[in-house]
Every structure is written in C-alpha cells, then in structure tokens.
Amino acid sequence: MGQIIAESWWPLLWAAIEVTIPLTIISFIFALIIAIITAVVRTSNVKFLRWLFGIYVWIFRGTPLLVQLFIVFYGLPSIGVKLDSWTASIITLALNTGAYASESIRSAINSIDVGQWDAAESLGMSRTKTMYRIIAPQAFRVALPTLANSLISLVKDTSLASSITLVEMFLTSQRIAARTYEPLLMYSMIALYYLVISTLLTGLQQYLETRSSRFVRKDR
Questions:
Q1: Are 96 and 57 in contact (CB under 8 A)?
Q2: pTM > 0.85
Q3: For residue 181, is it within any domain?
Q4: Chain segment 93-105, per-residue pLDDT in tens
C-alpha cells in the first residue's frame, strides 16, 4: 500500500496542477463574467432581456451538470458543432456556475437599500455610474460568501469532466485504481486532494471576507 501511495501521489498532483486547477480558474473567470452580466440585466428595466436571461438561468439551474456536459460534448456534433473535451468542459462549467452565481449577485444587488439609488439619482449620477461606484462594491461584499461556495463547488464539479474524456484528477485516480486494484485507497487519496484544495479556498474566502469588511462599522 505504501508503495502505491508513493507511486501515485505525484501523478494525481500533476493532474491537479495541469488540468483541474486551470480548468477551475478559467471556468470561474468566465462564469463570473456571465454572472455579472446576467445579474445586471435581470435587475434592469428591459423586460425582454430579463426574460431571455431568466430562461438561461432556469435551464442551467434546472438540469444536471452531467447531462449538460453530454449535450455539449456528445450532442452538439450531431448538428455540426464539434468541441474538444477542454473547450466543452470550460463552456459547460462556466455556463452552469454562471447561472448559480448570477442569482447570488442579483440577490446581493437587490439587498442594497433602494434609497441609495434615489440618492445617487438626485446627485445626477447615471444608473451605470451608480451601479459601478456605489452598488457594486457593497453587493460584492454581500455576495462574496456564496460566490466562494460556487468556486469550491466548481472545483469538485470538474471531476465530472472525466465523463467526457478529460484527463483530470478523478480520471487519473480511476486509471491508477484500475491498474493497482486498490479502488478504496485511490478514491480516498483523491478525496483528500479535493479536501485540501477546498480547505485552501475556504481560507482564502475568510481572508477576503475580513478584508472586504474592514471599513464596515460594527454595532457595539
């Protein structure tokens, strides 16, 4: 058992460095962009766009991520759209996470007192400037915990990319388990890897929460 651990820890770690972590970072960046645009549109006064983006959120929150991955990777080629496993994974993970994160951001925006919008308007500020300079900084602090949870969930969701042949951490552990006939050991090791990454991200979340709240006056 010790020999298997010694031979396996580096391939698993390398799979995390080479695939899992970059996949998480890239997907989350796109997801944040999608989420911000969706949240802003859904709090706007343009009814058609609110309806259109609402449909997007409804679809991606209402269907399993695994099914979405299969549709993008295995289904789209039937209509002439063929994507490699990296591209399909990034697109699907970004759209899925973006749908959930958009609701966090939208709720954070709606939690800001409407009086601040009125005060900014009375000062002659446009809606865009009000959003950027007044509402967004406060909404970010409110949405930070749920966005961090979305990031942590995304790390774990990357394991589903193995179902469309992307060789990330989980698929690497499956291949080692098939070769060594030690599934319990290998899956326990991969669970530990995910736990370590999630723990590090939780620590980062706590640090950012502290930093973003340093100017907030606390009740005594």
A1: no
A2: yes
A3: yes
A4: 999 999 999 999 9
Q: CA 150 to CA 7: how far, in whole Å?
A: 33
- Domains held by the chain: number: 1
The length of the chain is 220
Mean pLDDT of 203-209: 91
What percent of the chain shows pLDDT beyond 70?
97
Percent of the chain with pLDDT over 90: 74
> How much of the chain is helix, strand and coil, in % rounded to 5?
85, 0, 15
d(CA 220, CA 179): 61
Domain of 113 in residue numbering reads as: 2-212
Does a structural domain hold residue 218? no
Give the confidence band of 3 by pLDDT, cuts at 50, 70, 90: confident
User: Is residue 152 in some structural domain?
Assistant: yes
Is 220 within a domain? no
Extract the tokens encoding 131: 């959003």
Do the Cβ atoms of 109 and 139 come closer than 8 Å?
yes
- Position 220 scores a pLDDT of 44
* CATH code, domain carrying 120: 1.10.3720.10
